[in-house]
Amino acid sequence: MTDRELINMAVAAAEYSYAPYSNRSFGAALECADGTVFTGCSVENAALGATICAERAALCQAVSRGYRAFRRLAVYSAQSADYCTPCGTCRQVLSEFSPEMELLCARSDGRYVSYKLRQLLPVTVPRQV
Q1: pLDDT band at 121 (very low <50, low <70, confident <90, very high)
Q2: Is 127 part of any domain?
Q3: Which tens digit of pLDDT belongs to each residue from 33-81?
Q4: For residues 64-81, b (16+ Cβ closer than 10 Å) or e, as one string?
Q5: How far apart are CA 52 and CA 45, in angstroms?
Q6: HEC profile for 31-81?
Q7: Domains contained in the chain, number
Q8: E strand or H helix at 30
Q9: Which residue range(s) make up the domain with 15?
Q10: Taking the chain, what is the end-to-end CA distance rounded to the nearest angstrom?
């Protein structure tokens, strides 16, 4: 699967977002190590902490089907002129499974940048004992 195909799947997933509070729809497409792809969309809630990001929606679908190793994740928002990157919570949850996965961060004009998930996580210092 090409980068563009994966991004297009994220774009299609964003169409299903429920975003009455922010008016920003997000979509994600998560490619598993074997090539299987799961998509997710953002689902907002008046209780902000109960909002589900597209990235975690896709990840939860994959994990609930027995997948644990992931190759790439594409994330997109039609309302953003900036590259769409996962929030801190999503970065942490994704790193639980595949800290070396590639992130394809797209913006509304179709352009995208690529990162390794580890590049977007805060630097952690090993605990000294």
Answers
A1: confident
A2: no
A3: 999 999 999 999 999 889 999 999 999 999 999 999 999 999 999 888 8
A4: eeebeebbbbbbbbbebe
A5: 8
A6: EECCCCEEEEECECCCCHHHCECHHHHHHHHHHHCCCCCEEEEEEEECCCC
A7: 1
A8: strand 26-32
A9: 3-119
A10: 45
Q: Using alpha carbons only, what angle is made at residue 128 by residues 124 and 129, rounded to the nearest 5 degrees?
A: 150
Assign residue 25 the CATH number of its domain: 3.40.140.10
In a domain, residue 45? The reply is: yes
C-alpha pair distances (Å), 104 with each of 12, 22, 46: 15, 23, 29
Which DSSP category does 18 fall into? B
Which residues sit opposite 28 in a β-bridge? 40, 75
Residue 15 a catalytic site member: no
Q: Is residue 128 part of a domain?
A: no
Q: Which of 31, 44, 55, 100 is catalytic?
A: 55
**Please, is 2 exposed, middle or buried when counting C-beta atoms within 10 Å of its C-beta (0-12, 13-18, 19+)?**
exposed
pLDDT of residue 73: 98
Q: What's the whole-model pTM score?
A: 0.92
Any domain includes 15 = yes
94, two tokens: 């994704």
